Amino acid sequence: KYDVMNDLMSAGMHRLWKRRMIATAAVKRGSRVLDVAAGSGDIAIGMARKASAGQAGGGRVVLTDLNGPMLAEGARRVVDAGLLPGSADCVQADGTRLAFAHHAFDVASIAFGIRNFVDVEAGLREFHRVLKPGGQFICLEFSRPVLPLLDVAYDAYSFNSIPAVGKYVTGDRAAYQYLVESIRRFPDQGRFAKLIEKAGFGVVRYDNMTGGIVALHRGYKL
């Protein structure tokens, strides 16, 4: 029911946010892509299609997640999408201790996952380590509304509605209470951009979407 809740909480907007992330990612035919906290695989599958994974001369996408059952669901969807072993692989891993060589990937992505890291800065350093020179880090994450009064309405909706809907749909109110609290604890757009720069990335920028409810961050290993 993970994807059902994503649709309900965002009124389906998460699909548009992720579509823009995939379109913005510097993935080309033949690219090697790492998707961390891959969840049920929607970002990774989109990246794989963009890299033409599974075709002659195509790229490779690696999905990682700390949660084994979630990664298994992602693996199932990768198979359903027609991506073959070797063109899309699944590796259970901690995002702050990635089991990959230095300079292994052209693009490293994460969507709605980095705020759950115990050590966000360690995770950013790992993204930097595994990217090739010139490689792109791209991150989609909840952020701070920037439109007048949107922050008040968004807080009221988040804290009053999301945990209640989560309990009704999944039976787990606590997980969705944690979700809204983790969003409030996470650095805002500017502070997170500075953390990306601190990890060694250059040409760091972000774009607000839906009034700043989410932001699309990226930086490059120069």
Notes on the protein architecture:
It is a single chain. With about 220 residues, the chain is an alpha/beta fold. The chain is about 45% helix and about 25% strand. It has eight helices and seven strands; from the N terminus they run H-H-E-H-E-H-E-E-H-E-H-H-H-E-E. It has helices at about 1-10, 15-25, 40-50, 70-80, 120-130, 150-170, 175-185, 190-200; strands at about 30-35, 60-65, 90, 105-110, 130-140, 200-210, 215-220. It has a seven-stranded mixed sheet with strand order 3-2-1-4-5-7-6, sandwiched between helices. Strand 2 (about 60-65), helix 4 and strand 3 (about 90) form a beta-alpha-beta unit. Helix 1 runs antiparallel to helix 6, helix 2 (about 15-25) packs parallel to helix 3 (about 40-50) and helix 6 (about 150-170) packs antiparallel against helix 7. The longest helix has 21 residues, at about 150-170. The model has no long low-confidence stretch (mean pLDDT about 95).
List keywords for this structure.
7-stranded mixed β-sheet, 222 residues, 23% strand
With helices defined by DSSP (H or I, 4 residues minimum), what is the helix count? Answer: 8
Portion in helices = 40-55%
Amount of beta strand: 15-25%
What structural class is derived from the secondary structure elements?
alpha/beta
Round the Cα radius of gyration to an integer and report it: 17 Å
Low-confidence stretches: none
Number of DSSP E strands = 7
CA distance, first residue to last residue: 40 Å
Mean of residue pLDDT values? 93
Major sheet: 7 strands, mixed
Shape type:
globular
Order of helices and strands: HHEHEHEEHEHHHEE
Report strand order across the widest sheet.
Answer: 3-2-1-4-5-7-6
